[in-house]
Amino acid sequence: MSVDSTLEATQEASAAEDRAGFDEIHILWISEGMSCDGDTVSMTASGQPAIEDVVQGLVPGLPKVHLYNKVLSPSLGGEDYLVPFRAAARGELSPFVLVIEGSVPNQNIIEDGGYWTSFGNDPDTGEPLTLNWWIDRLAPKAWAVVAVGTCATYGGIHAMAGNPTGCMGLADYLGWDFRSQAALPVINVPGCPIQPENFMETLTWLLYHAAGSAPPPPLDDMLRPQWLFGKTVHEGCDRAAYYEQADFAKDYNSPKCLVKVGCWGPVVNCNVPKRGWMAGIGGCPNVGGICIGCTMPSFPDAFMPFMDEPTGGSVSTTLIKPYGAVIRRLRGITSMAVNKEPKWHHNGPELTTGYDPHWRP
Question: Which residue intervals define the domain Cytochrome-c3 hydrogenase C-terminal in the entry (predicted)?
Fold first, then answer.
């Protein structure tokens, strides 16, 4: 057999193995980034699917999942909790998905030692092990790497102008050309915090891919799941028709479009108005709150001050006023016409509907 034939056979065997997928997989969730752990808390509210259903094997077709998350862990904590993480760092745990929650600080800007955030201690020296230490060792070995929440995806609050930590998103830290063992880039699921089903839906797709029964999840150029972040808040907002009619709210008690009181919905990629927040209920503009762009890479700097009219908002709302005035008037006329009963609705002796069986002789 020639070298080329041997190589081709090896590649085909490898591809067949990849399609076969895994029967079992580990999820190592580190929330020791600069964060509030809000993404973990939010994730527990998902119902489609629930994290409990995934871990208990109640979702058909998924591999058996072992989840290691400090909020949901049944371990005793401390070194007992760190066992799978240390094993993965040594290359003794595979395959696993690495989930990072929270911004990644820049350790290189600390000149005299110290650390921004840590996860466990070095067993030899007793010194804290930084988040960066863990990422450096786990990410290259991970089957897939997921950044959960805006802090982990793009830096978020901790990476805003003037911060002393040099915080950044996970893709900034690893490099946007990073590829995991499954040849996947960092998968970004932004949100402050995440919408529960957005994360669980992405994780479920990823697990089906791990099982060999689905392709990789499609991502946009900012590594977000396309099917979740391909539309704007405005496109799914119940208040969008008021914008078209140039009918804008002047305060937060109004049911009308909130653009002039600070809403960034027309330019923000997010599906919360459509999906709601929990069990299909809630979502910022659905309950009278403005969109502040918390799923966006430039959050929060580009969207502050939050309560001010967005940049360009005055121009767009001014341009739409004459159009909106005409549309409102025309719709009003049509509304009056269709709000009347037809004249043939009466109890008189004559039929006035225009009924004319012309096909009869």
Answer: 229-306
